[in-house]
Design goal:
- Chain A: This is DNA-directed RNA polymerase subunit.
- Chain A: Pfam families: S1, SHS2_Rpb7-N.
- The complex is a heterodimer of chains A (about 180) and B (about 475).
- With about 180 residues, chain A is mostly beta strands.
- Chain A has two domains: about 80 residues, Dna Ligase, domain 1 (2-Layer Sandwich); about 90 residues, Nucleic acid-binding proteins (OB fold (Dihydrolipoamide Acetyltransferase, E2P), Beta Barrel), CATH 2.40.50.140.
- In chain A, about 10% of the residues lie in helices and about 50% in strands.
- In chain A, the strands form three sheets. In chain A, strands 1, 2, 3, 4 and 5 form a five-stranded antiparallel β-sheet that branches.
- In chain A, strand 2 and strand 3 form a beta hairpin.
- Chain B is α/β, with parallel strands linked by helices and about 475 residues long.
- Chain B has a five-stranded parallel β-sheet with strand order 10-9-5-11-12.
- In chain B, helix 3 packs antiparallel against helix 4.
- The chains are: A mainly beta (about 180), B alpha/beta (about 475).
- Chains A and B meet through strand 9, strand 12 and strand 13 of A and helix 4, helix 5, strand 2 and helix 7 of B.
Chain lengths: ~180, ~475
């Protein structure tokens, strides 16, 4: 799920940036530092959308660096248990398949793939139904449900399932509306 | 989850008893201090539904709509796989037992059970780090996967083949170790012969040079029709992946089946425990026998491929290397071409339709033994001056090798003997062999037959007098 929230961060700035562009430097450094990172509490920071406030800077003794407390608005992405996500398959093997929804990696084990889908090895390993009408392979798009998440400091990992109604391959855009 | 919010609202409308039951159950589960609140809540709803089913027989029509709706809800939110596949059974048993939801936790990936998504912190099971860095599987699950996979594979008439990299499929050398005579390899690509252009790779960032064994591309192509192939090397992972890229640039042969040093469960040993294939259907190609302690029966030993001088030195060969002599193994008669023929033979024997046992019960190790026994079939071998005195001949590796190849070994000469293996033409038995018109051969004759899977012409392995050397 995506959230638009306010986060705060203490930014250290080198004295050489002090001048007219101080604020711009601060913002660009913030973007560089924060976008694409992951915090266990909020999930992935997708993009910074605005600066709420920049507090008073505090000069560090000895170094000349200045610390600014910056409050910023950002979009974060955090998967939840029970959430339905659309994801792109990245790897298929006997164990199941891996998929990615943006920065989140999801594993769907073959226990959680419908029983009528069988693993087929070969040049392009895939899971296929017995009549061959549905096929999951690398780069397929699937709709899946998260049944477990593990949030680390730098990474979120999920277990998903497609063994349920309305889940599975969504390559045909007409049927998913 | 919306489920918990929904159920109390529905319950009073269906019947008062249900609600009481629901409350009871709710209290129970609260005092349970269950570590998985969601699971417990689901149980409650299922239980409640079971009651519905029992008590609602008279006014079933009225409530059927509602039940149906709730069933869907349960299905959608249930974490238990079995509940989804057989809801009927679920409903019958759910009222009686409360521990039905226990997941066997077949495996753990990144600290989560692969089946129920529950957080798991124990480090049990076998690590499959080559598939995913944090994947561990329980033994039952491995057995299940192997079983399932084998059936799949046999349907496609394939077996498993585990391939070693260094000295089997290729040979690598660091830039530092190249000798003066090999300097031409470092020169510009255009100066190299055509054969080298296609098989010699300079990996500047690894400071290494790699030479693929002649015939390796054809070998992989042919073998991929008959086998599902793994790479299994004692090298580091980065190296293994790079080599896999050289061997299989389009990534059609190996996929993610590349096992490197860090994946092994035992130090300095290669094991089939992390290969997701039934041992009875695995063949191994490797140049080192010692690392396959537990799986010698699956192993086809390869003659080492030494292209670079550094590799020759490492194994103690004094002579000039292939690279220094600017030659190479033969494309059509080299070790890979030979072993491919053997693999094809084993494969066709294994899938021989006249075989009585069903496919699943067949064992490729038995086939390997049978095929090997054909090599020196009909030969009766006597050794002389090969073993140290006081050494039990039966225990010598040449003796065992000859027996594995189907020859009969004997310690005494008699008219049925066909070959005398000797290091010295002056012994009594050697002289006897010459007089009786039997073959007198060097021990290398047996070794060559072992590597080439074919009886070699005896004339090529004469025994010379040690004093003349």
């Amino acid at each position: 799920m995506f959230f638009h929230i306010v986060l705060e961060r203490n930014m250290q700035l080198h004295p050489r940036h002090f001048g007219r562009d101080l604020r711009d430097k601060l913002v660009s450094k913030l973007m560089k530092d924060v976008e694409g990172t992951c915090s266990g509490r909020h999930g992935f920071v997708v993009a910074i959308t605005g600066i709420e406030s920049v507090g008073k800077g505090l000069i560090r003794d000895g170094t000349g660096f200045v610390t600014f407390p910056v409050k910023y608005l950002c979009v974060v992405f955090r998967p939840f248990k029970g959430e339905i996500l659309e994801a792109v398959v990245t790897m298929v093997n006997k164990m199941g398949f891996f998929a990615e929804a943006g920065p989140v990696q999801i594993f769907v084990s073959n226990h959680l793939i419908p029983d009528d889908m069988e693993f087929q090895s070969g040049d392009v390993p895939n899971y296929t139904t017995s009549d061959g009408s549905v096929k999951i392979q690398k780069d397929s798009e699937v709709r899946l449900k998260i049944i477990g998440t593990r949030v680390d400091a730098t990474e979120i990992f999920c277990i998903g399932t497609i063994k349920d109604d309305f889940l599975g391959v969504i390559s045909d855009p007409g049927s998913t509306s | 989850m919306s489920l918990t919010a929904d159920s109390p609202v529905h319950s009073p409308s269906t019947s008062g008893e249900d609600f009481a039951a629901f409350l009871d159950a709710e209290l129970d589960s609260a005092s349970d201090a269950s570590p998985h609140p969601e699971e417990a809540e689901e149980e409650v709803v299922e239980e409640e539904e079971a009651e519905n089913k029992g008590g609602d027989t008279d006014d079933y029509d009225l409530d059927s709509e509602k039940i149906k709706r709730r069933k869907v809800e349960i299905l959608e939110s249930s974490l238990d796989v079995e509940a989804m596949t057989s809801q009927e059974v679920e409903i019958q048993t759910s009222g009686a037992s409360s521990d039905k939801d226990v997941c066997s936790h077949p495996g753990v990936i990144g600290g989560l059970c692969i089946r129920c998504g529950q957080k798991m912190d124990d480090e049990s099971g076998v690590a499959f780090s080559y598939i995913h860095k944090n994947l561990r599987l329980a033994n039952d699950e491995i057995a299940r996967l192997r079983d399932k996979d084998l059936k799949n594979l046999l349907r496609k008439k394939k077996l498993y083949l585990v391939l070693d990299l260094d000295h089997t499929l290729l040979n690598s050398s660091r830039f530092l170790d190249l000798t003066v005579d090999e300097g031409y390899l470092k020169g510009s690509r255009d100066d190299l012969s055509d054969a080298l252009k296609n098989s010699l790779y300079k990996l500047d960032y690894m400071h290494m040079m790699t030479k693929l064994r002649p015939f390796v591309h054809s070998f992989l192509k042919e073998a991929s029709d008959l086998f599902e192939m793994y790479i299994y090397t004692m090298g580091e992972r980065a190296y293994a992946l790079q080599m896999a890229k050289l061997l299989d640039p389009e990534d059609v042969y190996f996929n993610s089946r590349v096992i490197a040093q860090g994946d092994c469960t035992q130090r300095h040993q290669k094991g089939l425990d992390i290969v997701l294939g039934q041992e009875s259907a695995v063949l191994i190609l490797d140049d080192t026998e010692a690392v396959w302690g537990k799986h010698k029966e699956n192993l086809i030993l390869m003659e080492r491929y030494h292209f670079f001088a550094s590799s020759c030195r490492q194994f103690g060969f004094g002579s000039k290397s292939l690279s220094e002599r600017k030659t190479d193994e033969s494309e059509s008669e080299g070790a890979l071409a030979t072993v491919l023929r053997v693999l094809q033979q084993i494969h066709s024997t294994f899938f021989d339709t006249e075989h009585s046992a069903s496919l699943v019960d067949r064992d490729v190790r038995q086939v390997l033994i049978t095929v090997r026994k054909e090599v020196l079939k009909g030969c009766k071998v006597v050794f002389t001056r090969v073993f140290p005195t006081q050494f039990q001949g039966e225990n010598h590796h040449l003796w065992k090798m000859a027996e594995r190849l189907g020859a009969i070994c004997s310690s005494e000469v008699d008219p049925s003997v066909t070959h005398v293996v000797s290091l010295d033409p002056g012994t009594e038995k050697s002289i006897w062999a010459v007089q009786e018109g039997k073959y007198l051969v060097h021990p290398r004759w047996i070794e060559a037959a072992n590597y080439l899977w074919k009886k070699q012409p005896e004339e090529s392995y004469p025994v010379s007098n040690p004093k003349n050397q």
